[in-house]
Amino acid sequence: MFDNRYGTGQSTLDGIIRATNVLLAGRTLVVAGYGWCGRGIASRAAAWARTVVVTEVDPAKGDRGRHGRYRVMLMTEAAKIGDIFVTVTRQLPRHRRRALQIDEGWRDRL
Question: How far is Cα 40 from Cα 18, in angstroms, rounded to an integer?
Answer without folding.
Answer: 18
